Amino acid sequence: MFSDPHAIAGYAEGAMQKVPGLLDMQRMARLLLAERVPADGTVLVLGAGGGMELRAFAEAQPGWHFRAVDPSASMLDMARQRLGPLASRVVFTEGYIDDAPEEVCDGAACLLTLHFLPAEQRLHTLKAMRRRLKPGAPLVVAHHSYAQDDAQKGRWLQRFAAFSASSGIALDVAHTVDSMARLLPALSPEQDVALLHEAGFGTVELFYAAFSFRGWVAYAG
C-alpha cells in the first residue's frame, strides 16, 4: 500500500478514521518523550513516512531534532511536504532500521508500524533501536496488539473494522477481518511486552489502549 499513489494520498485521513484517538495518542507519545528528552534533544522516528507524528512533535518541541526512517520514498516525500519549514530539523533516511544513522539518540518513537513485522524481524528492529538510544532513554510504540486465539482475535478485529466503517470508510467488514487475521503478523500484548524486554528495555508501561491497538513507553536498559 505504501507504493500505491492513491493509498499514499489518503494515508493521513485513513489513519484518522481507523485509529481511535490518533491525535491524542500522538500527543501522549510526545509528552512521554518529553519527560526525558532534553529541550535540544534528538529523537529517532521509525516509520516516519507521512509525517504526522513528526509534525506533532516538532511543533510542540521547537528545540528537538529528528532522525526519520521509512522504506517508502513516496511517504517520506509526503512527510517533507507536511512538515514544510520544520523539515530543516529532520534528517531523512529511506530504508529500514539498519539503514538509520549509527547515532545515539535521546528518545525514539515507532507508531503504527511494528504490527507489519513478524516477531523475529520485530525483535531485530527493537534491538537495533535500543542500540541507538542512550541508557534510560524512552521508546514509545503503538500498533495493533490483541490476543491470538481465534475467538478473541476475531472479536477485536471485528471491532476495529466496525470502528473504521463507522468513521466513513467503505469496507467489507467480514473480508477485512479475514484478511487481517491471515496476513497481519500482530502479536498479543504479552508477546509485545516480552519482546521489548528481550530487546534490552527495562521498565515497560502501557499508556494507550483502543480496541485492537495498544501503546507502550519503554526505557532503554
Automatic annotation (TrEMBL):
One of its GO terms (molecular function) is methyltransferase activity. One of its GO terms (biological process) is methylation. InterPro entries: Methyltransf_25, SAM-dependent_MTases_sf. It comes from the Bacteria. Gene3D superfamilies: Vaccinia Virus protein VP39. It holds the Pfam family Methyltransf_25. The keyword Chloroplast does not apply. Keywords: Methyltransferase, Transferase. SUPFAM superfamilies: S-adenosyl-L-methionine-dependent methyltransferases. The keyword Nuclease does not apply. Residues 43-136 form the Methyltransferase domain. This is Class I SAM-dependent methyltransferase. It comes from Stenotrophomonas lacuserhaii.
